[in-house]
């Protein structure tokens, strides 16, 4: 970075209209451009803030709550929203809803995000290898991927989870398997397009090893699009993970988890309909926030998939 | 063209084999000896041994797979552990119910999605566009099983105008009259949310792209009426849009398990749910296999139709 740029960054008064700064300031990097576009995208910021607040709530909320998430009061079952001492009422076993929703968020978020992170690492790696190597390695990886694509994602998740049986680990395992193939496809497609570019050719001509080419020239250019795609899967993953718990394939009672809570509360749908749908609202809020943030990232990073 | 179609059909065979392999493996990834998935737990040892031999479980895996595949090809999907009836018998009626539900849901989703998508594109940049796009994102982000519960709360609990669960009187017999149809409305609307969202986004994207192409500018320059331009745009949008719709129909059929559970709709989803609950692995395996095969065939049909509709598609 030359002195002029450093000065301009340090001295915000000088960078007059912002959109002009993007086009004229050639030395501003790609990521700075992305950050700038994101900072001007109000919708995305709002949803980012909501997500952050939800994260704070599920991390620290349970510590502040005076109720126990597992201890119910048989006399105080299904109290309405706003009942004294219970801000969001109580569930079918008389447990405080707010406390359980906050606790439930921990498992739900964990179940929703972990599979995408794991699938991003494994699928990204396999996809980049397939795209970079080409030939029979590509054919092998991509044809196996095709087979997994022959299952609707919900069906595949239910099939694997159903055969393995319930449990947190099995939910993560089955959802990871569901998300690896689509990530491989995206990673393979972007890598194939990067591989043919001139600078990769130049690096090869100057004798760089495959490892160096992938690390220095391919990864920096493909990780962004793969990452954006992976973030768009978080929303689906949250819905599916809670859905598996809803079917009784995730955590087991008395654990607090949004999907499971939604299922056990179904018995109360005629007595306390509002309380019954609360856990689902949490799933929906999380899912729509992740979707909006992912959309914002996509346009800020100018990714087309 | 013929060559392409033939190749596309041939290409489906290894996919179908792979799908069968995954379904076959379901029994083997289930915890415990696979024989426990076939024989009831209280079966005497000699019966277990005989069953093991019959199913070839004493043979190496590849041999077992071929034996299983031959059984499947003859329509023998095994027997339910719970009812003892053949899996196919149990599946037959359920598939009909799932198909009926997903077809109605798909129709609603496709109709709304196309109208919303085209409208959003026509008014792009305005508040109409923004509202419809927001609606689409909501449709995609909704946990559909929760949407189902919310609709039950509104229409069955609070307003009490539609039934909350089941498929109407007369068990499996279905008639297209109001008595039965009212049971279909809530689950179908619930299921249609996702395709509505996805198709709105897709159609909007394609229409915006087509509207920006030179030939549309030319048509405008010629002074063609808006409705005529629309016909031209529609012709260009139809093939890719129909492909997305076909795929969505497949996702609905495979993905209706959660919604069917919410509404106790007697389809494959409820069957799967019961199979999971009772750890009835043959039932689970058979249902998944049939649904996945339906999805594979649907993909093939969509591809063939798309190629016929749009001669520009010549994929390598």
How do you describe this structure in short?
The complex is a heterodimer of chains A (305) and B (316). Chain A has 305 residues and is mainly alpha-helical.
Give a written overview of the molecule.
The complex is a heterodimer of chains A (305) and B (316). With 305 residues, chain A is an all-alpha fold. The radius of gyration of chain A is 24 Å and the shape is elongated. The model of chain A is unreliable at 1-25 (pLDDT under 50). Chain A has helices at 3-10, 18-24, 30-40, 42-64, 97-133, 135-149, 153-164, 168-195, 198-205, 210-246, 258-264, 273-301. With 316 residues, chain B is mostly helical. Chain B has one domain: MetI-like (MetI-like fold), CATH 1.10.3720.10. In chain B, 76% of the residues lie in helices and 0% in strands. Chain B has 13 helices and no strands. In chain B, α8 packs across α10 and α12 runs antiparallel to α13 (281-309). The longest helix of chain B is centred in the first third of the chain and has 36 residues, at 87-122. Chain B is globular, with a radius of gyration of 24 Å. Chain B starts with a helix and ends in a 7-residue tail after the last helix. The mean pLDDT of chain B is 82. Chains A and B meet through α6, α7, α10 and α12 of A and α1, α6, α7, α10 and α11 of B.
Number of strands of chain B: 0
CATH superfamily of chain B: MetI-like
Roughly how many Å is the radius of gyration of chain B?
24 Å
Name the shape of chain A in a single word: elongated
Structural class of chain B: mainly alpha
Total domains of chain B, how many?
A: 1
Number of strands of chain A: 0
């Amino acid at each position: 970075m030359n002195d002029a740029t450093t000065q301009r960054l340090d001295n915000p008064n000088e960078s007059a209209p912002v959109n002009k700064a993007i086009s004229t300031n050639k030395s501003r990097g790609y990521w700075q451009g992305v950050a700038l576009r994101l900072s001007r995208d109000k919708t995305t910021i709002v949803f980012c803030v909501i997500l952050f607040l939800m994260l704070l709530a599920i991390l620290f909320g349970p510590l502040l709550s005076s109720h126990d998430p597992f201890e119910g009061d048989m006399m105080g079952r299904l109290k309405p929203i706003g009942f004294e001492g219970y801000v969001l009422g109580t569930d079918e076993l008389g447990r405080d809803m707010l406390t359980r929703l906050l606790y439930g968020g921990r498992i739900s978020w964990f179940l929703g995000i972990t599979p995408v992170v794991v699938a991003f690492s494994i699928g990204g790696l396999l996809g980049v290898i397939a795209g970079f190597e080409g030939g029979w390695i590509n054919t092998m990886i991509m044809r196996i991927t095709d087979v997994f694509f022959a299952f609707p994602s919900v069906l595949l998740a239910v099939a694997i989870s159903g055969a393995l049986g319930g449990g947190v680990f099995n939910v993560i395992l089955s959802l990871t398997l569901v998300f690896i193939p689509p990530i491989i496809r995206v990673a393979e497609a972007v890598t194939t397009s990067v591989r043919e570019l001139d600078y990769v050719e130049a690096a090869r001509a100057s004798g760089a090893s495959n490892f160096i080419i992938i690390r220095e020239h391919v990864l920096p250019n493909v990780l962004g699009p793969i990452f954006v795609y992976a973030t768009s899967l978080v929303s689906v993953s949250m819905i599916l993970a809670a859905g598996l718990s809803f079917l009784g394939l995730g955590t087991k009672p008395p654990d607090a988890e949004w999907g499971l809570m939604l299922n056990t509360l179904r018995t109360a749908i005629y007595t306390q309909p509002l309380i019954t749908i609360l856990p689902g609202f949490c799933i929906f809020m999380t899912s729509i926030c992740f979707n909006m943030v992912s959309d914002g990232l996509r346009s800020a990073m100018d990714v087309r998939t | 063209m013929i060559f392409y179609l033939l190749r596309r059909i041939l290409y489906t065979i290894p996919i179908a084999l792979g799908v069968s392999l995954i379904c076959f493996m379901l029994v083997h990834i289930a915890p415990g000896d696979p024989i426990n998935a076939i024989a009831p737990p209280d079966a005497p040892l000699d019966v277990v041994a005989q069953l093991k031999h019959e199913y070839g479980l004493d043979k190496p895996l590849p041999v077992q797979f071929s034996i299983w595949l031959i059984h499947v090809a003859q329509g023998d999907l095994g027997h339910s552990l719970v009812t003892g009836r053949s899996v196919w018998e149990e599946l037959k009626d359920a598939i009909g119910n799932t198909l009926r539900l997903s077809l109605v849901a798909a129709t609603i989703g496709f109709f709304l999605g196309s109208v919303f998508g085209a409208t959003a594109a026509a008014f792009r940049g305005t508040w109409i566009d923004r509202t419809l796009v927001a609606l689409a994102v909501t449709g995609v982000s909704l946990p559909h099983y929760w949407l189902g519960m919310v609709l039950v709360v509104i229409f069955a609990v609070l307003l009490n105008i539609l039934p909350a669960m089941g498929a109407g009187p007369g068990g499996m017999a279905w008639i297209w009259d109001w008595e039965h149809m009212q049971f279909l409305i809530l689950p179908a609307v619930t299921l249609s949310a996702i395709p509505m969202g996805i198709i709105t986004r897709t159609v909007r994207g394609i229409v915006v792209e087509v509207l920006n192409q030179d030939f549309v500018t030319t048509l405008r320059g010629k002074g063609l009426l808006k409705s005529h331009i629309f016909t031209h745009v529609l012709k260009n949008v139809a093939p890719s849009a129909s492909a997305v719709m076909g795929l969505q129909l497949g996702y609905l059929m495979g993905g209706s398990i959660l919604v069917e559970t919410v509404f106790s709709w007697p389809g494959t989803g409820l069957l799967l749910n019961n199979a999971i609950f009772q750890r009835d692995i043959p039932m689970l395996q058979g249902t998944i296999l049939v649904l996945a095969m339906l999805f594979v065939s649907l993909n093939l049909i969509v591809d063939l139709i798309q190629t016929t509709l749009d001669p520009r598609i010549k994929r390598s």
